[in-house]
Amino acid sequence: MHIDLNADMGEAFGDWRMGNDGALLDIVTSANVACGAHAGDWDVMARTMTQARDRGVGIGAHPGFPDLQGFGRRRMSMPGESLANLVIWQFGAARGMAAALGTQVRHFKLHGAMANMASEDIEMARAAYSAALRVDPDVILLVLAGTAQEAAARSLDARWAGEIFADRGYNDDATLVTRGQPGAMVHDPNDAAARMVAFVKSAAIIANSGRQIPAACDSICLHGDGPDAVAIARAVRAGLETEGITLAPMQGHRPS
């Protein structure tokens, strides 16, 4: 049994700092790099990709809504064509930077409100993923397991990997409990580690209600922007390794 550990990073902007990317890159096997809309800039992207490349960490593009003030966590409505162009613009920047640094973008993961909306709306998910696949037909779509994101990726015959979250609570439909609501966040590193071991070994998402939802648990997200981020990441990695679960960059499910 093996699994990928991913974290969102490259989310600083100019002199403003966010997260502890250096520490996380020593723990994770994949990095989701912000593409400049919700966070990040050209220098931050270059620095983050260089560090990931040098550590052998897989690089992913992490596009979001153009919402620096809200960190991409505020919902926005836009026509499908505009959403597609927004995705292509960000993904293209990430691919260009990676190529200039002698590496590549292996996976693609939506950020924040864009991801949450796509987990509920298959047509929105299809619009975003179709746009990404126009840029790179072989990119791995990192999808929120068991949601409309996964259904969209499957319907497009795309290469995909299912993602679960170490520090977030789940609703009974496999979507994430909205931030600010009771049970939305997991702050205790030991609790996060125990949950992830249980998810992976049972091949299921365990909702806050206790309901088990069968799911492809291919990659665990370790958010990089919280005060407990590094401690949770270390605990989750240690918990998995103690159970004999191998850590490796995601490979994705190939279309049949």
UniProtKB/TrEMBL annotation:
Biological processes, Gene Ontology terms: carbohydrate metabolic process
InterPro entries in UniProt: Glyco_hydro/deAcase_b/a-brl, LamB/YcsF/PxpA-like
Superkingdom of the source species: Bacteria
Signal peptide feature range: none
Gene3D superfamilies given in the database record: Glycoside hydrolase/deacetylase
Cited Pfam families: LamB_YcsF (PF03746)
Coiled coil: none
PANTHER family assigned: 5-OXOPROLINASE SUBUNIT A, UNCHARACTERIZED PROTEIN YBGL-RELATED
Protein's name according to its UniProt entry: UPF0271 protein
Annotated organism of origin: Jannaschia helgolandensis
